[in-house]
Specification:
The longest helix is centred in the middle third of the chain and has 15 residues. The protein has a single domain, classed as STM4215-like (2-Layer Sandwich), CATH 3.30.2000.30. The relative contact order is 0.23. The termini are close together. Strands 1, 2, 3, 4, 5, 6 and 7 form a seven-stranded mixed sheet that branches. With 125 residues, the chain is of the alpha+beta class. It has two helices and seven strands.
């Protein structure tokens, strides 16, 4: 299992969004609130003789019809990930997750609010 799939399955346990976690984009006419994830990069962590893991940056965007709804989803993501140390996510061993908050957004054409958090996931492959 790759880390993106493991994270997607893990985030689906957040009650506010249930199974509404999508990869790369929202579906047409989505049910909100929802989360979209996108892998940004995944540089390897090098040891003396081999790669010992990776630090994968995955951007999560919370979407809702109100700013407060969007903020609640972002807080749920933060709560589920900020103290994630030395655990297995799916079948992927995760050493640590760091959070890097990004910008808020609003789509005039859809009336959707969005909030971004990048998750820096240190894991083995």
């Amino acid at each position: 299992m790759v880390i993106e799939e493991a994270l997607m399955a893990y985030l689906k346990t957040i009650a506010l969004v249930s199974n509404r976690v999508h990869f790369l984009k929202l579906p047409q006419d989505p049910k909100l609130p929802a989360i979209v994830i996108q892998k940004i990069d995944s540089p390897k962590i090098h040891g003396f003789s081999a790669d010992i893991g990776a630090m994968t940056r995955i951007q999560t965007t919370s979407w809702a019809t109100t700013y407060s709804g969007c903020s609640a989803v972002q807080e749920a993501i933060r709560g589920a990930t900020q103290n994630y140390f030395n655990q297995t996510m799916g079948s992927v061993p995760v050493m640590n997750i760091e959070l890097d908050e990004g910008p808020d957004t609003y789509e005039d054409d859809t009336g959707r609010y969005g909030k971004v958090i990048d998750l820096l996931i240190y894991h083995t492959e």
